[in-house]
Design brief:
Mean pLDDT: 76
Shape: extended
Radius of gyration: 48 Å
Number of helices: 6
Strand content: 15-25%
Oligomer: single chain
Length: about 350
Amino acid sequence: MRSIWNGAISFGLVSIPIKLVNATENHSIHFRQIHLADGGRIRYRKVCELDEEEVQGGEIGKAYEDADGTMIPITDEDLAQLPLPTAKTIEIVAFVPADQIDPLQMDAAYYLSANGVPAAKPYTLLREALKRSNKVAVAKYALRGRERLGMLRVVDDVIAMHGLLWPDEIRAPEGVAPEGDVTVRDAELDLADALMDTLGEVDMDSLHDDYREAVEELIAAKASGETVRPAESGDAGGGKVIDLIAALENSVQAAKKSRGEEGAGAEGEGDGEMADVHPIKKTSGKSSPQPTKKSTAAAKKSPAAAKKSTPKSTGAKKSTSTTKKSTAKKAATKKRTSSSGGSGTKKTASSRKRTSA
């Protein structure tokens, strides 16, 4: 890695020659501005506003603009004459616990590399002293024309330095907190704790920039002439008034589902008290529905209903028997009628015979 600054760490009377190397890099995708009519690139040129001529870098200097608009020229020689003991030195001023450094002060990060063989021993001494003390070093250094504040700590076997903002560069959070008194119930805090526990920890190395990957895919698709399909936009849900308890419960269930866990029921039902959450056991095949209170009551009533239906079927049997008896009675009556009708015919025939005689 290319060094951006050479100097030394001042550790009491110990001087450690070091090289400053960028510890971070920017992977953001940068775009150029073009003329939409013909695709020509738009460039910014440095032009003097007095003669409207383009000026090269060697002809450009520094100046401070006064309140009335007056330009006060400042040369590099003027700045070089200023007392700046940290111009080439990272001067350690104190060793403090890491939690005394406000994360709001954190700025750019650098690696400090030992510059040459003689620097290896004092470099290792400072590194091991920082490790054993569990402290960080607060230091002053100068970079790009200004004095800065830094924090030295150990990363693996390397001393790293974080640039820090000066305390007076941190704004007070006035007017940022919600206005008025807001009360948070214990049930809501319990659900928030449950959500935090469910989300758990994350391997920081597994996190990546999804948007940058999408932009890279978009560029590759357009470069190859493919048709780019618009992505489905999700509902961000911003600006909506929500039921906090319900949102927390749903968040817990969603977090469990995303981690392959299955939660049973919602938490915190009823009067705001916490409900126990039990995981649903996965079973093979189709799951049979659980009996409800209504189905259980119906099952209890079914014997009585069966008893009531039994007399009805008995009555049906009785009516069937009665029908059979009436049918048989009719048949017998018909038979007797036909028999009596036959004898009457015979008598009439006999009378006719006697008359004719």
